[in-house]
Amino acid sequence: MTEELLLYGAYGYTGSLIAKTAVDRGFEPILAGRRAEPLEAQATDYGLENRTFSLEHPEVVENRIADADAVLNCAGPFSATARPLIDACIETGTEYLDIAGRYDVLEETAERDGEASDAGITLLPAVGFDVVPTNCLTSYLTEQVEDPTHLRVAIDGLGTFSPGTVKAILEQAGDPGAVREDGRLRSVPLAWKRREFSFEGEAKSAVTVPWGEVSTAYHSTGIPNVETYATVPEYAQTAMKRARGFSGILGWGPVQSALQAVVDAVVEGPTAAERAQSHNRIAAEVENADGDTASAGLRTPDTYDLTAETAVDAAGRVLDGDVAAGFHTPSEAFGADYVLEFSGVERDDTEEFE
């Protein structure tokens, strides 16, 4: 391909999968990141250009991405990396994508819609799991009920974890949860609400967690009330409630640094064989003011395998000029059926809620 795609954070666990998928699909991406040693080794393996730079100095970032047509940000924590890369992309007229899933980061990105439109660039965050499947399912259900006012989405599975994912979970452990009420984000305690969901006929208990769809569902559909859930065992639900009083401690800088150092030492991420045995299930329901409802579910491959596929595909479409300037969610950019284009993804309209 002649268009230049720069992958920032290319040597991390998920970034490495995305880089491999990009090469397999015919891209020759520029591999970029903060650490020279792993980046140079990766670039040598693929025979690709590499660029080492931090995000501390705006002029440096702008210089290093200026000749790229698009940046795909794979480097967490996205609370630290999204803003400086978006700043640079707006200044240089470079398209921006990422695989962020934090609702607060996605809200900040959405607020830059006007800047991106004025600069003539696309802002397309969250092009991986969990947002691509949940956002597509939400948009699909919105078409089934007139004027939906409430959305509930739950994820079951999540059996594999990379170092970056564990770090993101720890980063959010110091924050409260969140839901959307009447169009506004509201902070709520961890495991604030419990609800039963049916996944392929299997009833499971889930508690509220702040998935990215708390942000993206509203921007895609305008549904003003959104709750997102995850299935967790009973003992974990109890632990989450007891941990509410420790959120301030968990969010303290030195504690976060110590926890993340432990992650670096002990978490390696799933093997290809482990990913092949992993899958996720998503259930969602919309409801309108008249009490009309529609529900559906998705089954997806492993979190990381699906992310690599969707991220590379989305980047290719942006490079092809298929997405207009400004901020977009995945379903806004590509449609409610987009996720069904990927192998191993199936949608079911028979899920039930209690």
The end-to-end distance, rounded to whole angstroms, is: 49 Å
Number of domains: 2
The fourth-level CATH homologous superfamily of the largest domain is Dihydrodipicolinate Reductase, domain 2
* Overall CATH class of the largest domain: Alpha Beta
Computed CA radius of gyration, to the nearest angstrom:
20 Å
CATH architecture of the largest domain: 2-Layer Sandwich
**How many strand segments?**
16
Remind me, CATH topology of the largest domain?
Dihydrodipicolinate Reductase, domain 2
Q: Strand pairing plus helix content: what structural class?
A: alpha/beta
Helix content: 40-55%
Share of β-strand residues: 15-25%
Q: What is the count of DSSP helices, taking H or I runs of 4+ residues?
A: 15
Please tell me what the overall shape is: globular
Low-confidence stretches: 166-170
What does this structure look like?
- Residues 6-124 form the Saccharopine dehydrogenase NADP binding domain.
- This is Saccharopine dehydrogenase NADP binding domain-containing protein.
- Pfam families: Sacchrp_dh_NADP.
- InterPro entries: NAD(P)-bd_dom_sf, Sacchrp_dh_NADP-bd.
- The strands form 3 sheets. Strands 3-2-1-4-5-6-15 form a 7-stranded parallel β-sheet, sandwiched between helices. Strands 10-11-12-7-13-14-16 form a 7-stranded mixed β-sheet. Strands 8-9 form a two-stranded antiparallel sheet.
- Helix 1 packs across helix 14 (303-319) and helix 5 packs parallel to helix 9.
- Helix content is 42%, strand content 24%.
- The longest helix is centred in the C-terminal third of the chain and has 17 residues, at 303-319.
- The chain has helices spanning 13-24, 36-46, 58-65, 78-92, 103-110, 113-119, 131-142, 163-173, 213-221, 234-242, 247-250, 253-266, 272-276, 303-319, 330-334, and strands at residues 5-8, 30-33, 50-52, 70-73, 95-98, 122-124, 148-156, 177-181, 184-188, 194-199, 202-208, 225-231, 279-288, 293-301, 326-327, 346-348.
- The protein is globular.
- Residues 166-170 have low confidence and may be disordered.
- The protein is of the alpha/beta class and 354 residues long.
- It folds into 2 domains: 5-128 and 305-335, NAD(P)-binding Rossmann-like Domain (Rossmann fold); 131-302 and 339-348, 2-Layer Sandwich (Dihydrodipicolinate Reductase, domain 2).
